Fold this protein.
Amino acid sequence: MLKLLLTNVRLTLAGTALFAFALLCYADPAWAKAAGVDVWSIRELNDELASGTARRQELDIHDEVIQRRIALKEGIVGDLLAGRLSLAEATSQFAALNLPRADAMAVIRATYPGRTDEEKLARNVIEYARLRVDDKTPPGVMARLEAEFDRLARPAATTVH
């Protein structure tokens, strides 16, 4: 008899605790969500998961595009430093890479001085190259680039008739 009474008391306490927990979840759904026990919103959770997965795929694609642009710029600068490209050619190739990215050109315009976008891009290329100069770089490369920049940035001579 005592054993039956204790079992009933335990069941009553467990039921009361469960009822209180359910009441708390109903009264404050945010608490239930924070505690991870909001089983009634599984559809919302699945939607959030699908949305997060889609966003991650978008970011992965974006990252891949950025990594590809960086690799292309590294190749251009490598050719520039090795003397296989002129500053004007490297600048033109950087411009082509930046063309689909209006934000990239906006950053270059805000960062580098110059009268034209070409001058600003050339300064960007020179800075990119300067950061990659090492002991394997042929001597005088930066002086060559600065001289090329001076010719590129020099205003065109006007003819007098």
Q: What stands out?
A: The helical segments are 2-27, 29-35, 42-82, 87-98, 102-111, 117-130, 141-153.
